[in-house]
Structure formats: C-alpha cells, structure tokens
C-alpha cells in the first residue's frame, strides 16, 4: 500500500485508498472527515466541560480568601496549603508566614502555580487538552483541526519537558498535604476524628497515588538501568509505580474530584453551612 493511503482491508471502517489524499507536511493526509463511526465527540466535549468547570471553581476558591480553615479541627483546604501569606490564620500557617498580604495574591501563592504547572505539563492532561481544547487531533483516527503539526519539539511546547522538575516540587507539596491530614486528627479537647479528617486522609492518599504514578516518577525509579537483576529494589519499586502508572488517567480525574470535595467540605464547615460530623472528640 502506498504511503499516505488507507485500504478498507486494513480495518478502517470502509475507507478506501481512493478516499485518502497525498501526504502533506510529512503527515498522512486523510480524505475522509473521520474514520470513526462511534460517538468520538463525547470524550473531548466532556473533557472541556469538566476541566473548565473545575478550573473556574479553583480560581474562585483560590481568590476567595475566606472559609479555608476550621480552627477547632485543624482542617485546612489543600487550595490554601501551605498558607504562607501574612493574612493567613496563624494556626493554619504551620510552615510560617512570609508572603506579604497583597489582595490580588492567593494565600497559597507558592503552591498553586507549582501544582497548576505540574498538572498542566502532566502527560495525561497534555493528551486531554491537546485533543479537547486544541483538536490536535480531537480523537484517534480523526483529522487534526490544524494544518501544521510540530509536536513538542519547539517553543513553547518544548517547555513541557520541565514536567520532571515540577514532579519534585509536587512530592514536597504532597508531604505538606500529608502533614495537614495528620493535623486534622484534632478536636478542641486534643485528639479527634471527624468526617473532615477522613476526607482529608482519603484525598492525600489519592494525591500520593497520582503523584507517584507520574511517568517522570516511573523513569526516575526504573529508568537508565541496563540490568534490573542488579537492582532488585528499584525493580520492585518500578513494578509498583508501573501498576499505578497504568491508572494515571483515572487518578488524574479522581484527584480533581477529591480536591474539590475536600475544599468544598471545609468551606461548608468553615462558613457554618454545616457542622462537621464528629466520630471522636
Ligand atoms: S505524567 Fe502526569 S503527573 Fe507526571
């Protein structure tokens, strides 16, 4: 079969070689509008809807500058952690306050950009937003909406390679989130457990799973080795990370959900809309 053509015998939903045009710009030119017969638009539409809604919620919450902390139970929403602003409740600032209180700055001025860039450069999210927001391409076997394609080999997309560095910062922030979850075992009388504690713990476990399932983590743990047999511990760690890595997409979405639920619950308790369901203390 000639380059740049498709044959119906290759299982391409009835598209013949006469329907395909010549190769252009180094890419196969596909004459048919799309080779898919299923509802391929569903995934990009769903992705745009959910991601846009989540981003709008996060931006509103990041700049709200209230209802982020419940002093009685030490519940601190991950959207404000670590709370470095001098405007933060001192009890919420376990790591100190050194960012001046400037109204247009979110209280978590340092962590939010890092986490945003960590997710923005994540291999899974890249796939998701390249497809759904840019249509490049919208789905497998669907033509790219753009005439040219340069991949990630040039500016600005070459900056996506910085992902591995954001991974290191994400590990540090996961440690901070873990401390927040431990701090949430608190009540006015000392030790305590509430529904908020459980939500924070579940959230941080899933955040760790998402972070460790990162493709960069998998490479750091098991990459550049010639013989796994000489590195049994790294081999075992690589096997565990690989299992999580296979669930990276699911973890990416699940953690967006748990972050939202955690933040909303803490906002609701902090605002007095609901009372925390106490189990101990
Ligand atoms: S690849 Fe998704 S977080 Fe690294």
Short description:
With 281 residues, the protein is mainly α. The protein has eight helices and four strands; from the N terminus they run αββαααβααααβ. It has helices at residues 42-64, 111-120, 123-132, 163-183, 195-212, 215-222, 232-245, 248-271, and strands at residues 69-70, 75-76, 193-194, 278-280.
Average pLDDT: 89
Structural class: mainly alpha
Helix segment count? 8
Q: What is the rounded distance between the termini?
A: 73 Å
Bound molecules: FE2/S2 (inorganic) cluster
Categorize the overall geometry: globular
Task: Report the biggest beta sheet as strand number plus sense, adding barrel if it closes.
Answer: 2 strands, antiparallel
Q: Give the amount of beta strand, in percent.
A: under 5%
Helix and strand pattern: HEEHHHEHHHHE
Helix and strand arrangement:
Elements: H1 42-64, E1 69-70, E2 75-76, H2 111-120, H3 123-132, H4 163-183, E3 193-194, H5 195-212, H6 215-222, H7 232-245, H8 248-271, E4 278-280
Antiparallel strand pairs: 1-2, 3-4
FE2/S2 (inorganic) cluster (FES) binds next to helix 3, helix 4 and helix 6.
Tags for this entry?
281 residues; 8 helices; two-stranded antiparallel ribbon; mainly alpha; single chain; two-stranded antiparallel sheet
